[in-house]
Amino acid sequence: MLQENIPSVPTERESEKGRVETNNGTPKLEARIPSGPIQEQWDKCRFEMKLVNPANRRKHSIIVVGAGLAGAAAAATLGQQGYHVHCFSYHDTPRRAHSIAAQGGINAAKNYRNDGDSIFRLFKDTVKGGDYRAREANVYRLAQISLNIIDQCVAQGVPFAREYGGLLDNRSFGGVQVSRTFYARGQTGQQLLLGAYQALEEQLAAGTVTMHTRSELLDVVIVNGKARGIVTRDLVTGHIECHAADVVVLATGGYSNVFYLSTNAKASNCTAIWRAHRRGALLGNPCFTQIHPTCIPLSSEHQSKLTLMSESLRNDGRVWVPKKKGETCAPNDIPENERDYYLENRYPSFGNLVPRDVASRNAKEVCDEGRGVGPHGLGVYLDFADAIHRMGLQTVRDKYGNLFEIYQRITGEDAYTVPMRIYPAPHYTMGGLWVDYHLMSTIPGLFVGGEANFSDHGANRLGASALMQGLADGYFILPYTVPDYIASTKLDPVDVSHPAFTSTQAEVKDRIKKLVGINGKRSPDSFHKELGKIMWDECGMARSDAGLKKALARIPEIRDEFWHNLRIVGGDDELNQALEKADRISDFLELGELMCLDALDRTESCGGHFRVESQTPEGEAKRDDANFSYTAAWEWKGPGQAPALRKEPLTFEYIPLSQRSYK
Ligand SMILES: Cc1cc2nc3c(=O)[nH]c(=O)nc-3n(C[C@H](O)[C@H](O)[C@H](O)COP(=O)(O)OP(=O)(O)OC[C@H]3O[C@@H](n4cnc5c(N)ncnc54)[C@H](O)[C@@H]3O)c2cc1C
């Protein structure tokens, strides 16, 4: 029975001409990676790009959806170049984008510490940290651009932490042995976003950028095969509106909220990328999600949000659990010889700074053994006693004070005197819309930046790399590649009277009417919660063939009930948060199924994707490079149809494939 619900996956074959084709005969994905040595590829690419004369720029319009780090940076920079930019956000101000929540820091290969860092080392750490499932060319470019990002942000006045002498300070994050993380206490995202916001404000004042807040993208409009606009809903009035442009950029963030409980802002969702996917944009590696090891453990069934404790805490905090199963003593009463500092013991080279996937899996393992701590046994200690002894209370307070305060407010415990309790939680999605080297999706004219694209992190993102990627995309890559597209593409004049806008708008209106008209009994949240539990149980920290098949059987049933038994209070022509949620959940119900399908298809373990059937004798993730060195890119084939799998082969010329070891 279960099998019937699982769509079959078309595989690839060699065509007679030697070209890799899917069974449907469609050509392989073209990543447009420049030729030549990796160090020169981005320079070469930029040199070969076409430019738009400054006088002609004002004739072109660009829609940027998203005003987080990636979107605000892109909109501000393209506006500064002279294009007409329209920036959209469902928030009431760009400053509320989820980027503001980022705590720990942003990586850059500045080597200010003179501890052996270099562009090449950041490149290597990121490829290795991502378990060799990222595109080498993109990662190298990211490492190169990391240097510019810090200069840009310092010039904007972002108050990065400084050492006593005035130089920018650095700390370490997981998966690396150098200190390359720039930070602003535990509020790095907030400070970076304020920098990007100021740049955006400057362009708003200059009139090059128009901001559309409380405006949610509900569809992408395709005219003659190119992205030429969007359909939005005004979240205050309910109006469904059309907007036309020459290019559409999506910078709409990640989809960890598919798990219901995650560290993401409650409103973060997948609607923009999913609707683009339904219009033809392929979705890359949807099952690659990151479970962050240091979050405050769940305390109640009714909780709707999880809170991150920044990974930077692992610089000085020591992770441990009692050696004895079912230990009931208070942590400070457990003597040293009865504690298991399991990360330090198992991974002596990296200790508490192993990458997130490794730290998360190990926490799950010790809790599964019955050695977890806290009310539900789903927690491990993160202990600062040694750090306080070594550096003094005030230094620890200066470095991490606001994080300790967050912890205290949520748990009521003082982590300066009692070890924190932490447990892994969904945090980041490495999957997203597939993009080429130019950050263009498979729909011409539709570009994707930041967490919304799949690009640079492979199967596991190293900490402090998302801010780096979002700002690299927004400030330094899209401002080259979008103009190149404009300069080299014939763009016929199109406005919102075009039939493609009328029909897409009608489809959006129908969908909204349908949602409001179901008039069933269950709240949107109840469906989301049910989906989230299945996703966490079967497509979370560990995935198995049987579990994924179970999820793939159950999700369509929940989706079916959703469309027959949903209840939305209120109408569609007013502020209606139940309607907003329901519409987003309808997309999570489709994306969740694709994530499970992708996870089922990838029978290897890699990074954040741990298939229980594929592990080494020591219980570490076991990759299968012979069969899975590719990016999975899924194609929407229509409602009720099996999606098609396309593959972008990954080759590793500069960082030879090897089994990751942090021992
Ligand atoms: C708690 C937490 C801490 C983190 N700490 C760090 C860290 O220390 N270092 C690090 O590198 N990374 C960190 N990350 C990850 C990082 O913050 C995010 O990956 C990054 O900020 C995402 O930026 P973005 O611009 O891609 O998207 P977001 O900041 O999520 O912005 C998305 C934007 O798109 C808009 N939007 C979305 N959908 C629509 C739609 N349909 N219509 C209109 N507008 C839409 C939103 O309004 C918003 O403006 C952290 C993540 C979390 C959850």
Please provide a written account of the structure.
It is a single chain. It is built from 17 helices and 21 strands. It is of the alpha+beta class. The strands form 6 sheets. It has a 5-stranded parallel beta sheet with strand order 7-4-3-11-19. A 5-stranded antiparallel beta sheet has the order 13-17-16-14-15. A hairpin with a 5-residue loop joins strand 1 and strand 2. Helix 15 (545-565) runs antiparallel to helix 16 (577-601). The model is unreliable at 1-23 (pLDDT under 50). The structure holds flavin-adenine dinucleotide. Flavin-adenine dinucleotide binds next to helix 3, helix 6, strand 8, helix 7 and strand 17.
Strand-pairing-aware structural class: alpha+beta
The mean pLDDT is: 94
The fraction of residues assigned to DSSP E strands is: 5-15%
* Weakly predicted, low-confidence segments: 1-23
Ligands bound to this protein structure: flavin-adenine dinucleotide
Seen as an oligomer or otherwise, the chain set is: single chain
How many strands?
Answer: 21
Distance from first to last alpha carbon = 44 Å
Q: Quick summary of this structure?
A:
With 663 residues, this protein is α+β, with helices and mostly antiparallel strands. It has helices at 38-48, 54-57, 69-81, 119-129, 136-156, 188-206, 271-278, 342-346, 356-371, 385-391, 393-411, 466-488, 499-517, 524-539, 545-565, 577-601, 625-628; strands at residues 12-14, 20-22, 61-65, 84-88, 106-107, 181-182, 209-212, 215-223, 226-234, 240-244, 247-250, 283-284, 289-295, 318-322, 339-340, 380-383, 420-429, 432-433, 446-448, 630-635, 644-649. The protein has a 5-stranded parallel sheet with strand order 7-4-3-11-19. Strands 13-17-16-14-15 form a 5-stranded antiparallel sheet.
